Amino acid sequence: MTLLLKEVKPFAQGGNRLCFVHPDNPDRCIKVRRPDFTLADCRRKKGFPKKLRPLSSFDDNREEYQTIQQLQCWIGDSIFDHVYLCFGFVDTDFGPGLETELIRDADGLISLSLKQYLWEVGYTEQCRQAINELTTFWRAQKVPSRDLLTHNIVVQRDPQGAISRLVVIDGLGDPTLIPFRWLPQKYQIRRIDTRLQRFETRLAEFVSNCAAGKQPSQVGVLLHRDDSIENIMTKSDKDERLI
Ligand SMILES: Nc1ncnc2c1ncn2[C@@H]1O[C@H](COP(=O)(O)OP(=O)(O)OP(=O)(O)O)[C@@H](O)[C@H]1O
Ligand SMILES: [Mg+2]
Q: Is residue 198 part of a domain?
């Protein structure tokens, strides 16, 4: 069965993908390639020698799916404390879509990216602690990733509005020539530390820009939070309504 997404408004978009709430399951997200920025467009923008790579190597969905499976094999299910669950591919009217867990806050609204959270709520003490927890996990488990970016991390909140966890939803896997797992432990740690240091530098810069009132770009800012009553009602609310 082909999922019809063209009539539905995406809840977010990045540079490469459109993100939709699954039409039949409010707890799942479907990510498809942006029709206005195809894999061929993506390859055209790259310099030499990346331009020579096959089109499939630019497919974020494919890479993300494979990487998350590998991470589960290497690290175990604890990876899903900080990375979303990935369920494979479904057919959509935009082409193949990657089906993943949709990160929602306890009130049912789609969670904000760390970027949007920092701008709207600020760099609070609990945010600092949550970031510390994420980076400690990344280092301890030696999770291979590209640079961690604030728009690729979402902030999940509990019923009191406190942060329950940070979830990385993009930028997993290591793009460098020598596969991460072939490196001696010492170099793996060094690579992770470099990424984490860059994350901290970028974060500090972003926080100080926010404090100076400099509005961030729209990348990683939700287009809507799917606050339709149908979707934020809990299962038990729905069951009660049926009685
Ligand atoms: N499963 C999810 N749960 C909640 N929010 C999500 C989820 N997946 C994506 N988002 C939101 O959608 C935005 C865009 O998603 P994503 O980063 O996957 O797109 P992209 O095109 O691959 O991004 P990039 O521009 O970094 O390549 C994210 O910044 C995040 O706010
Ligand atoms: Mg992204």
A: yes
- Both 116 and 187 in one domain: the answer is yes
Residue span of the structural domain in which 187 resides: 105-225
Compute, in angstroms, the gap from residue 101 CA to the centroid of ligand 1. 12
Whose alpha carbon is nearest atom 26 of ligand 1? 14
**Residue 116 sits in the same domain as residue 193:** yes
How many domains does the chain divide into? 2
Residue predicted with more confidence, 197 or 233: 197
- Do 73 and 126 belong together in one domain? no
Residues with CB under 5 A from ligand 2 (ion): 14, 152, 170
Buried b / exposed e along 156-193 (16+ C-beta atoms within 10 A): bbeeeeebbbbbbbbbbbbeeeeebeebeeeebeebbe
86 and 188 in a single domain? The answer is no
- Position 41 pLDDT exceeds 90: no
Count of other CB atoms within 10 angstroms of residue 59:
17
The answer to whether residues 118 and 217 belong to one domain is yes
- Please check whether residue 6 lies inside any domain of the structure: yes
**Mean pLDDT for the stretch of residues 118-129:** 97
What separation in Å is there between the alpha carbon of 159 and the centre of ligand 2? 26
Distances (CA, A) of 76 to 61, 69, 180, 227: 21, 10, 17, 33
Global pTM exceeds 0.90: yes
Pocket around ligand 1 at a 6 A CB cut-off: 12, 14-17, 19, 29, 31, 60, 84, 100-103, 110-111, 113, 151-152, 154, 169-170, 219-220
Same domain for 110 and 215?
Answer: yes
d(CA 71, CA 225): 29
Ligand 2 center to 111 CA (angstroms): 14
Ligand 1 atom at minimal distance to the Cα of residue 111? 4
